[in-house]
Structures are given as structure tokens and as C-alpha cells.
Amino acid sequence: CDCALLGSTGRLTKLCFCTARFHGEGYQEGLAEGSHAGMAEGRRHGALHGARMGSEIGCYLGFALTWHCLLQKCTDPKSSKKLRALDSLIAMIQKFPYEDPTYDKLQEDLEKIRGKFKQVCSMLNIQSDFRLGNERSSLTF
Amino acid sequence: REWERERERDRTVRVWGREGEWGTGKPGPDREDMGREERDAHGAGRALSPVSPHRPCPCPVPGSGWACRAVLADGHQRTVRRVAWSPCGQFLASASFDGTTCVWRRHEHGFEVVATLEGHENEVKSVAWAPSGSLLATCSRDKSVWVWEVDEEEQEFECVSVLSAHSQDVKHVVWHPSQELLASASYDDTVRLYREDEDDWVCCATLEGHTSTVWAVAWERSGQRLVSCSDDRTLCVWQRSQGHGAGSEHSWQCVCTLSGYHGRSIYDVAWCHLTGAVATACGDDAVRVFEEVSPVSP
């Protein structure tokens, strides 16, 4: 505070220091409040997106395991190809690091899983964006 | 024989041939598979005339010696964006904004759909056959490139990979002249290359350098180089180089950038496999032909 340079009119000096102090305290309070709110929002955001991702991948896994069961007994070459693709999808999903949000290839691996899912749907002649009848919330991601 | 085909806003595919060929000598023999057809008055508007299947094609001869041999309607619901002949010449693939790719088989009296490839979420921008004829690639505004395996006997097509390497609309796909290596061009300013790796397809290279949409890519006959054209009005020539160490990936370097020649976006490029000349299609109303100049020896 420049007022301090003006000399020793006690009250003026004290006033300047007060201003600076309140400014500083205000800043600290704001920073604390902002950080707190940011953390809370971040956690909510993470939880929401994590849940969506989990839901999507979970859906693919359930789908793949079911079809694997259905085709397991078939020995014709076409079914073998389908089973191989299903195995590949299941392996990709099981390999996915659910515990590590800082995994650097998260989005890339997720795209690969989505791509493999679409390929499997194409092989099984199923629409990859299935909607559940008349329900309002459709199973799209 | 030389055949040409045209894709139009009227959602049909037309097949053209030299007059006098196809055994009849008539400009347009009866076709059973022709449903609706449209009178083609180039640029002057169209009249739809519902037609019985056995009426001859009334298309006027568009230039000396060429006649419209077939109109393939009812294949697509929207603009047909690209067509491609298979290497054997028996199949024709058509990519459409309706999200599907139709494969037509040629037979004595016309063409019939043998497969409709679905899966892309929106407009399919390009389709290309691999030189072996056993693979087909499609790309779309949905940012993905799909690779399909062809079973010629069964005439069945199976999707073997869905590649989402690009971050934007993919404009063009084209196969290497001799290997099963695929190139794609995108709105995300990059060219990507893909190959098969242990039962699945992977993106093995990303060619960065353009500063705007890459519209098309063309391979040199040897397959050691490719050229890309862009919205940024430049052409980039990329050269393959051996990776370091055994079994490592080839890397690609931009060895030449041709800028200052084109006044607008360059929409298409073709590399002649006979002469080595490169031709470009540009938004400034010109076609340009480039030839490689040998470096002056010191």
C-alpha cells in the first residue's frame, strides 16, 4: 500500500493496511469457497460421466456375453467368425481399466470398444442403436 | 471397353457405354430392373415420368459415341455421392447420403442389387475396392471408416472393422495400388493409413501437415508415395520411409508441398499410373496437371 510511504499519520496508514488485509482475506475466502464448490461439481461431473461410461460398456458386455451363449453351440464357419468377434469385444471390455480415470488412452480404447460393438452388430444383422420399444428413455449413448 | 457412370442429385446411378456395344447397337435396350427414370435435361430441370419396366431408356446421347445403358433407380433414398467399379468389373458399389452403400452386380440385361451395406450413422462419402477385389472400404460423416470383406461366390459382405481414428467427417478413402493398405482423408485436416494387424484393422499412420480439410488422396503407382489435396489450396506429397529397427512401422514424411498454384480449395487429385502426372480439380474452375521435375544434378 502506497499510503505507508506518506509518513506517519497513524490513522491513514492503518486504513491502508486494513484495506489490504480485507482484500487479502476476501481473496482467501473466495478461493476456499470456489475450490470447495469446484471439488463438489467435479465429483458430480465425474460420477455422472463415469456412470454413463459404465452403463454403456456394461450394456455392450451383457450383449456380447448373451450372444456368445446363444452361438456357442454353432460350429458352422459363419458362426465361428461371429464368435471370434464377440470374444474380441469381450476381451477389450475386460481389459478396460475401470479403476483408473487418469489412463491416457481412455477415450481411444472406448472408441475401439464402440467400433468393435458396431462391427459385431453388423455381423449379427442388428441395429447398433437399439431403442426399447415405446419407452421414453432409449438406449442410445 | 470404357464405361463411365454418373452420380446425380436424382438419386440414381447411371451406366454409360459406347454406342453400338452391349450386343444390341441400340442406344438403350429394355431393362427389367428399371423402375422410375428421369428425363435428363442437363441443368434444365427434370421431369419425373413413372415408367413401366419394359420401356426403353429415353435418355439422350450425351456426347458423341456414349449412351446411357442403364439407370439404377430405387437403390438409394438420397444423393448418390460416389460410385466405384470392382477390379473384376462385375460389381459396382454406390455410396449414398442415405447412409447405405449398395453393391450392384452386372449381368446380361442390367444390374441388380446384391447387397446393401448398412451401419454408418449418416452420409456415406466414399467407397473404394481394394485391388484384390476381396475388400471394400466406406467412410462417412460419422467420422468412421468401415472395412468390409467380400465373399465373391456368396456375394456376401461382412464388416471386419469399424475404425474411428478421425475426429471429423471422413471425405475420401482409397486403397494402395498393390497392398491391403488403406488411406482416408478428413475434415480434421489429416490423412490416415490403416492396415490389418492380427485379425483386426488399426490406424498405422497419421499424416499431418494440411491446415484445412483434406478432400482427397491418390497413390503413386509404386505405392511408395501418395498425394493429398486440401481446402488449404495446397498439394502435399508424402513419402514412405523404412522404420528404424526390425519389424517397426513405416513412417511417412511430407516431401513436397505445392502451394501458390491453386486459387481455391482443391477437391480432387489423381496420380496417373502410366505417366506419373498428377491432375487436380480446383474450385477456381481450372484443372491442373503437374509433372515431377528431376532435380538438377550439381
Automatic annotation (TrEMBL), chain A:
List, alphabetically, the InterPro entries matched.
Essential_protein_Yae1_N, LTO1_adapter
The record ties this protein, via Pfam families, to:
Yae1_N
Question: Could you tell me which residue ranges the Essential protein Yae1 N-terminal domain spans?
Answer: 26-64
Its family remark reads: Belongs to the LTO1 family.
Question: What is the protein's given name?
Answer: ORAV1 protein
Which species does the entry assign this protein to? Molothrus ater (Brown-headed cowbird)
Gene encoding it? Oraov1
TrEMBL record, chain B:
Where do the WD repeats lie?
A: 73-104, 117-158, 163-194, 207-239
* Xref: CDD domains: WD40
GO CC entries: cytosolic [4Fe-4S] assembly targeting complex
Keywords in alphabetical order, please.
Repeat, WD repeat
Bias (Basic and acidic residues) = 1-21, 28-43
The ranges of region (Disordered) come to 1-52
Looking up SUPFAM superfamilies in the UniProt record yields: WD40 repeat-like (SSF50978)
Q: Which biological process terms from the Gene Ontology are attached to this UniProt entry?
A: iron-sulfur cluster assembly
Statement: the UniProt record of this protein carries the keyword Repeat? yes
InterPro entries xrefs: WD40/YVTN_repeat-like_dom_sf, WD40_repeat_CS, WD40_repeat_dom_sf, WD40_rpt
Q: How is the quaternary structure described?
A: Component of the CIA complex. Interacts with CIAO2A and forms a complex with CIAO2B and MMS19; the interactions with CIAO2A and CIAO2B are mutually exclusive. Interacts with CHD1L, ERCC2, IREB2 and POLD1. Component of the MMXD complex, which includes CIAO1, ERCC2, CIAO2B, MMS19 and SLC25A5. Interacts with WT1. Interacts with CIAO3. Interacts (via LYR motif) with HSC20.
Q: Function, please?
A: Key component of the cytosolic iron-sulfur protein assembly (CIA) complex, a multiprotein complex that mediates the incorporation of iron-sulfur cluster into extramitochondrial Fe/S proteins. As a CIA complex component, interacts specifically with CIAO2A or CIAO2B and MMS19 to assist different branches of iron-sulfur protein assembly, depending of its interactors. The complex CIAO1:CIAO2B:MMS19 binds to and facilitates the assembly of most cytosolic-nuclear Fe/S proteins. CIAO1:CIAO2A specifically matures ACO1 and stabilizes IREB2.
Q: What is this protein called?
A: CIAO1 protein
The record lists the organism as Molothrus ater (Brown-headed cowbird)
Gene that this polypeptide is encoded by: Ciao1
